[in-house]
Write a structure and sequence with these properties.
- By secondary structure, the protein is mostly helical.
- The chain is 63% helix and 2% strand.
- It has a two-stranded antiparallel sheet.
- Strand 1 and strand 2 form a beta hairpin.
């Protein structure tokens, strides 16, 4: 890495706080939801531990990841207990994830590069060297695309689902091809 490259990547600063990223950025919100789906299949809390018990919570955060994100020392007093109790919650896990990204890839947060963010979550700051992160990104990408068509995540589809159900329950079913004909005023046509 040359001095110019280092200067370029170190020039990015985090422009928002972690809470703003969690609540105000739809792409980041969608990514966090997809990460949770991929990591723990959106199971009820407490999420099962992964990686032979070294990763916990809905985003499967390891102790080293947690300490790195919050700037704690490797063997700082109370850090293990703090990790074990707090990383089981969704909000704290998401804040930890965002702090990790703010430290290691602020440029991806600034540009909204969700692929780099997901791969950094899975493989660390040198994710580009690990092939596993490409497979992980494909899973996350599919989860993000599927969420757009999921009735639980998309309010417009929820409304459409209820309208369709009401249509089928309370009226006779009219095929899609005929609906456009029924919407026209055909009374003048018969005369």
């Amino acid at each position: 890495e040359t001095g110019k490259q280092r200067c370029f990547w170190d020039a990015f600063y985090v422009l928002r706080g972690e809470e703003q990223y969690r609540t105000d950025c739809p792409r980041i919100r969608k990514l966090l939801n997809a990460l949770r789906c991929v990591e723990t299949s959106n199971c009820p809390l407490p999420a099962p531990a992964g990686d032979n018990g070294t990763s916990i919570g809905p985003l499967q955060i390891s102790h080293a990841y947690h300490n790195d994100a919050w700037g704690l020392g490797k063997d700082e007093a109370g850090s293990h207990d703090h990790w074990m109790t707090h990383c089981q919650g969704v909000e704290y896990s998401e804040r930890t994830c965002l702090r990790y990204w703010m430290r290691w890839c602020p440029w991806a947060l600034q540009f909204g590069d969700v692929e780099a963010l997901a791969r950094t979550h899975n493989g660390g700051p040198k994710y580009h060297r690990a092939c596993k992160t490409a497979r992980y990104w494909r899973k996350v990408k599919v989860s993000m695309e599927v969420a757009a068509y999921d009735f639980r995540h998309n309010p417009r589809l929820r409304e459409w689902k209820h309208e369709r159900k009401a249509e089928q329950d309370f009226t006779t079913f009219v095929p899609w091809e005929c609906r456009s004909l029924l919407s026209y005023n055909l009374s003048n046509w018969w005369d």
